[in-house]
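Bumping my old thread because nobody answered last time. Still need a sequence for this structure:
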Protein backbone atom coordinates (compact mmCIF):
# COMPACT_ATOMS: atom_id res chain seq x y z
CA UNK A 1 0.00 0.00 0.00
CA UNK A 2 0.90 3.64 -0.36
CA UNK A 3 0.61 6.41 2.16
CA UNK A 4 0.30 10.04 1.11
CA UNK A 5 1.13 13.08 3.18
CA UNK A 6 -0.01 16.47 1.95
CA UNK A 7 1.03 19.94 2.99
CA UNK A 8 0.76 23.53 1.86
CA UNK A 9 -2.90 24.37 2.06
CA UNK A 10 -4.15 27.60 3.53
CA UNK A 11 -5.82 30.93 2.98
CA UNK A 12 -4.63 33.19 0.17
CA UNK A 13 -5.89 36.32 -1.53
CA UNK A 14 -7.17 36.34 -5.11
CA UNK A 15 -4.27 36.61 -7.50
CA UNK A 16 -1.91 35.04 -5.02
CA UNK A 17 0.09 31.85 -5.22
CA UNK A 18 0.30 28.70 -3.18
CA UNK A 19 2.23 25.47 -3.42
CA UNK A 20 0.88 22.12 -2.38
CA UNK A 21 3.20 19.21 -1.74
CA UNK A 22 2.60 15.50 -1.45
CA UNK A 23 4.99 12.77 -0.43
CA UNK A 24 4.28 9.11 -1.08
CA UNK A 25 5.70 6.29 0.97
CA UNK A 26 5.27 2.55 1.19
CA UNK A 27 5.01 0.45 -1.96
CA UNK A 28 6.05 3.20 -4.34
CA UNK A 29 8.02 1.26 -6.95
CA UNK A 30 5.10 0.86 -9.32
CA UNK A 31 3.50 4.28 -9.06
CA UNK A 32 2.23 5.41 -12.43
CA UNK A 33 0.21 8.60 -12.18
CA UNK A 34 0.62 11.20 -9.47
CA UNK A 35 -1.39 14.36 -9.21
CA UNK A 36 -4.11 16.39 -7.62
CA UNK A 37 -7.86 16.45 -7.49
CA UNK A 38 -10.16 18.86 -5.72
CA UNK A 39 -13.65 18.82 -4.36
CA UNK A 40 -16.20 21.42 -3.35
CA UNK A 41 -19.08 20.42 -1.06
CA UNK A 42 -22.02 19.27 -3.12
CA UNK A 43 -19.95 18.67 -6.23
CA UNK A 44 -18.04 15.76 -7.69
CA UNK A 45 -14.35 15.47 -7.12
CA UNK A 46 -12.58 16.75 -10.21
CA UNK A 47 -9.18 16.37 -11.75
CA UNK A 48 -6.87 19.33 -11.35
CA UNK A 49 -3.56 18.12 -12.72
CA UNK A 50 -1.72 14.84 -13.11
CA UNK A 51 1.70 13.70 -14.24
CA UNK A 52 2.88 10.32 -15.45
CA UNK A 53 6.25 8.75 -14.70
CA UNK A 54 7.60 10.15 -17.96
CA UNK A 55 6.29 13.59 -16.99
CA UNK A 56 3.40 13.80 -19.37
CA UNK A 57 0.93 16.16 -17.76
CA UNK A 58 -2.78 16.74 -17.92
CA UNK A 59 -4.59 19.81 -16.64
CA UNK A 60 -8.17 20.77 -16.15
CA UNK A 61 -9.24 23.52 -18.51
CA UNK A 62 -10.05 25.75 -15.57
CA UNK A 63 -6.46 25.72 -14.28
CA UNK A 64 -4.42 25.40 -17.46
CA UNK A 65 -1.86 28.16 -17.62
CA UNK A 66 -2.20 28.97 -13.93
CA UNK A 67 -1.26 25.73 -12.19
CA UNK A 68 1.83 23.62 -12.67
CA UNK A 69 2.22 20.03 -11.52
CA UNK A 70 5.67 18.60 -11.02
CA UNK A 71 6.92 15.32 -9.67
CA UNK A 72 10.17 13.81 -8.56
CA UNK A 73 10.20 10.10 -9.30
CA UNK A 74 13.23 9.47 -7.12
CA UNK A 75 11.67 11.16 -4.10
CA UNK A 76 8.12 10.04 -4.85
CA UNK A 77 6.77 13.52 -4.45
CA UNK A 78 4.38 15.62 -6.47
CA UNK A 79 3.83 19.34 -6.10
CA UNK A 80 1.14 21.64 -7.36
CA UNK A 81 2.15 25.24 -7.89
CA UNK A 82 -0.94 27.39 -8.03
CA UNK A 83 -0.67 30.88 -9.46
CA UNK A 84 -3.21 33.61 -10.14
CA UNK A 85 -5.61 32.00 -7.74
CA UNK A 86 -9.30 32.72 -8.03
CA UNK A 87 -12.09 32.38 -5.48
CA UNK A 88 -13.48 29.51 -7.54
CA UNK A 89 -10.29 27.58 -6.83
CA UNK A 90 -11.43 27.25 -3.24
CA UNK A 91 -11.75 23.54 -2.48
CA UNK A 92 -10.28 20.64 -0.63
CA UNK A 93 -7.33 19.41 -2.63
CA UNK A 94 -6.43 15.73 -2.59
CA UNK A 95 -3.17 14.16 -3.59
CA UNK A 96 -3.68 11.16 -5.85
CA UNK A 97 -1.53 8.27 -6.96
CA UNK A 98 -2.25 5.31 -9.21
CA UNK A 99 -0.17 2.21 -8.61
CA UNK A 100 0.13 -0.61 -11.12
CA UNK A 101 -0.71 -4.04 -9.78
CA UNK A 102 2.02 -6.65 -9.58
CA UNK A 103 -0.42 -9.41 -10.46
CA UNK A 104 -2.06 -7.58 -13.33
CA UNK A 105 -0.30 -4.66 -14.99
CA UNK A 106 -3.62 -3.56 -16.47
CA UNK A 107 -5.04 -3.03 -13.00
CA UNK A 108 -4.27 0.02 -10.90
CA UNK A 109 -4.83 0.71 -7.25
CA UNK A 110 -5.77 4.24 -6.33
CA UNK A 111 -4.71 6.10 -3.22
CA UNK A 112 -5.76 9.44 -1.85
CA UNK A 113 -4.33 11.88 0.61
CA UNK A 114 -6.36 13.15 3.52
CA UNK A 115 -7.09 16.43 1.75
CA UNK A 116 -5.88 19.95 2.41
CA UNK A 117 -8.08 23.02 2.36
CA UNK A 118 -7.30 25.85 -0.04
CA UNK A 119 -9.34 28.98 0.45
CA UNK A 120 -9.03 31.95 -1.90
CA UNK A 121 -10.65 35.02 -0.42
CA UNK A 122 -10.01 38.70 0.07
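Sorry it took so long. Here it is:
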Amino acid sequence: QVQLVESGGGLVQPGGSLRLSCAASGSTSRINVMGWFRQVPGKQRELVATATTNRMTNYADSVEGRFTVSRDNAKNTVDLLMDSLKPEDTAVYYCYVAVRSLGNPNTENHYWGQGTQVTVSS
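The mean pLDDT is 96. Let me know if any region looks off to you.
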